[in-house]
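Limitations

Structures in this collection are predictions, not experimental determinations, and the ligand pose is part of the prediction. Treat each record accordingly. The example that follows, with biotin as the small molecule, is included so readers can see exactly what is and is not provided: the inputs are given verbatim, and the output is the predicted complex.
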Amino acid sequence: MTDEEILQLLRESPSAFLSGEEISHRLKVSRTAVWKRITHLRALGYEIEASTRSGYRLVNSPDLLAPWEVQPLLKTKKMGRKIHYFQTLDSTNSKAYQLALNGAEEGEVVITESQEKGRGRLERQWFSPPFLNLYLSVILRPKIPPHQASLITLMAAVAAADAIQKFSGFLPLIKWPNDILLRDRKVAGLLNEIHSETDRIHFVILGIGVNLNMGEKMFPKEIRPMATSLMIETRQTISRKAFLQSLLLQLEKWYAIFLKQGSTVILKAWRDRAQIKGRRVKVISFGEIWVGMAVDVDSDGALILETEDGRRKRVVAGDIEYKEKVKS
Ligand code: BTN
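Predicted complex:
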């Protein structure tokens, strides 16, 4: 008997009680096993009323990202139709990578309630406390050459920005290479990893972390001034499962656009949401620092910078800081 099966039974009769005997009969398990499972579900946050005479009744469900909670909401064809769900993991990216090596298919998703070693870009950590945010990795198997892999990252940043906008009503900005900002603070980040040979990608792991219900003081001190969450910005608790459904829908939409229409549409969508052209930036890349004007992002996702002495530089990895605020 799984959590899912017992919840399904309880949901079939939302207002009535279901006796322990009936549950044990229908699921072909002992009444003690039913009781144990009910205790487990309560520990997960399900409010289940129990009456010695009448049995059990589901009163309230928590905002878990479990497949049985998320899948009924999904409007996608492929993305998230198979969810690998965990209470905790080192990192969803590492898990998804292993699953993909073992043949997991395109659109399969790894979700966890918390990460012990959540990974950020440039060997940083990604703060991943339980039951507050979204930590997910999507497995993709695009038939494209490896040099186009960064377009997948740009595509995912556009999709994440769109989900955040649809959900919050605020316009997020993408900061090169793929941070999503609200009011100049980071609300989401992407870490994509590829497995490929010279001329062919085997798979891409799209790792996405979105700060949803973190209060300001929950962030570690050192990132507090630069970080935000959707709850902080909207002053409302965010339904994590509803956000996840929206994000997966946007990902499916933008991925289909990329496969059908190619890089031009993706680059345009990214540029519209990044508004980086002409801005003065400080670039930190492999220990070197340059200040200059951002000219554009090329089709491989590299930043083109015009340094103060008028030279052009192509920056493939690193971080930027804006030297002035965006003009609105
Ligand atoms: C960054 O902005 O530095 C990237 C952050 C990416 C975090 C996500 S959370 C889910 C997935 N698993 C990880 O270990 N990292 C990514």
